[in-house]
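Input/output pair, single chain:
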Amino acid sequence: MKKKDFCIVTPFHKRTLNDYEKICLNTIQKVFKNEDKYLITFDSNSLSLKNFEKIFFHKSYFKSIQSYNQLCLSYDFYEKFTKYKYILICHLDVIVLSKSYIYEMINKEISYIGAPSGKKSIFDRSRKKLWGRRFFCNGGFSLRNVNDFLKVLSSDKLSNPINYYSIYECLKSGFGKYLALLYRTKKQKEFKKADFFTKNFYLHEDSFWTYFAKIFYREFKLPSVTQTNNFAFDGDPYFFYKKNGDKLPVALHGHHDYLNFLNNLELKIN
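Output:
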């Protein structure tokens, strides 16, 4: 059976939506009118979203950021979506604007893409001003190649532990924990190496997929900073809009002043 290009996957742990989440949901419904949509939650959650099918996971995955990270690093999670080429993780703090660029990333067979992060200016005492973009793929709005993710998570090889991406991240987060985890992963025999590594991973799940997935699957294909900026903004929208050549991305992620930003562009989302 031919796989569908992608579906929308929205993890959510609350039983009600606030006003901003309702606005975000409306944009998801509008832009992805014809795509399959799934609400990821636990079976005792009574929340229902129109046009969303529910998929249940154990309630323990929704107790904290750390437990949610483990859900997004589990083989079972991605195995639910093998009839799709990609899943689009779309949290309810995402304002979706368009979808054409998603197909461009699918055609390029990108394994994973999300919003870049901003480098803060050391000359700003408030540490709020951004002066550059840092390569990253934020998981809150992210396109994920199901087959590639399953290959990573089922890997029993450490094929490329010291590479550009792992070094790039360790320069920020430190090499000590990473090298210790690598050593333990290489020595252990009870679990597959990727399974052991992810269960003991010490950063957020999107950091794993951005910087460390390649150590288990060399062909894991990551985007450029320009592509991530075209895909989504996460942070000061005026900064990322300027860096993107005054072009809007697919979506705006996070609780930033996006509504005022869009009003200034005379763009109404409702």
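The chain has a mean pLDDT of 96. Residues 81 and 96 are 22 Å apart (CA to CA).
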